[in-house]
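Sharing a chain and its predicted structure for anyone who wants a worked example. Both blocks are below, sequence first, tokens second.
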Amino acid sequence: MVPANDGFVRSQPDTDSVLIDIAGRALQEFCMVVNVGMPMWLPTPDGDVLNLQQYTETMFPSMFGPYRMGSVVDGTTKTGEVRRTADNPVAILMDAARWSQMFPGIVASATASPIITPSASQNGSIQLVTWIVNMEYDETTVSPLYHPLIRSGQALGACRWLASLQRQCEYLAIMHSCPDPALGDTDISPTGRKIIFEVAQRMTRSFYEAMCGPEAQPWRSIDNWCGGCGISLERFEVAAQVVTLFAGSGAPGFLVLRATTTVWLPGKPAQQVFDYLRHGYRRSEWDSLTKGSPILEQGCFATGQLPGNAISVLRTIAPDGTNGDLILQEACTDTSCMVLAFATLDDQSMERAMNNGDLATLSLLPSGIIILPDGHSEPLEPPASAAGSSSTDVSHRGNTGSFVSVMYQTLLGGQPPVKPSLDAIDNAGNQLCRVIRKIKDAVHANNVVNV
């Protein structure tokens, strides 16, 4: 993958020839670097990192000229097995519409020029994929708190891309397979199971889109909120952005209040945070949707081999023992990112969807949590040759902290340009505070730092 826009305006034939030339040179360089080992690539626990000095001496002048002064250059590569789905990985990667589906935590949207039509073998249920990322970026545009994560390669490096591709291919293969009791499948019918997968996909995609921020909206307002959580020495501050926007494709539409915050938990691994959140028996501690009620798991479908990859159908239980709200949850985890997305469902709409596949009337307004490693790690002795590497931080292992992003959404009454009341903004901010405070207490975090 290479950038296609070099800043010049050309006619279509000229543009096509330039793109084909760039793609050809990029393929030639890719084939060269993918087939060499040391000293071009230096091994680390998270994959290989590029020896920038060796790369510069071997490859320059590159197709795009010298790197910009002051920019950071990172190169990473990772090889792993990918489970084949109905489409093989090459076909998936050549379909721009699939990129936001296969890499939901990295790509919001993608477009492609239909110049080249690929053809690839679809033999084999397991395929070996090698991913290479060679990127240049201006580090001054990124918060210093994120620098260790980006330099580690776990944010946008090859290990992140490949892990996402592996997880999504595994998800699709399981979705279209027969139910397997060994993977936690329940007695819900295969048709009902497929519907639940489709609804969960739609919900999680909506969650990612909301976390990325609204695109062009007919109306929206933005408020900043800051509040304190805890008391005495345990007190910490949480800053949140509260966005009110007009949503809905038809009249009359509706107003949505969306509050988001991100905090850093130094010294607390992402896996520890994820394990606390995904266990249903502790959910009423932090999830306002439960209203403090216990949770009954009515269905659970594993979506991958790693523990924690699952779609769950949950039901709150009222104090008198009657059924409460229906909650759909999808939990996703790989080596680089962990996600928990959830939304309440209307029983009648869900029943219609399960009976006849009618998803049009199913309204979803998801909230959720994203957990990333912070890039800090327990220092290990790096390879002696790592001095020339562009990503020597990757040679460390064992992330010691995590970034936790929380989003809460709710419907508001009224129509634009009605702005939310201060009480509504405070309530949203306090919901985020509660989640962060419960996470802090559960994992025994000493510090909570606003990002």
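Comments welcome. Residues 12-34 form the longest helix (23 residues).
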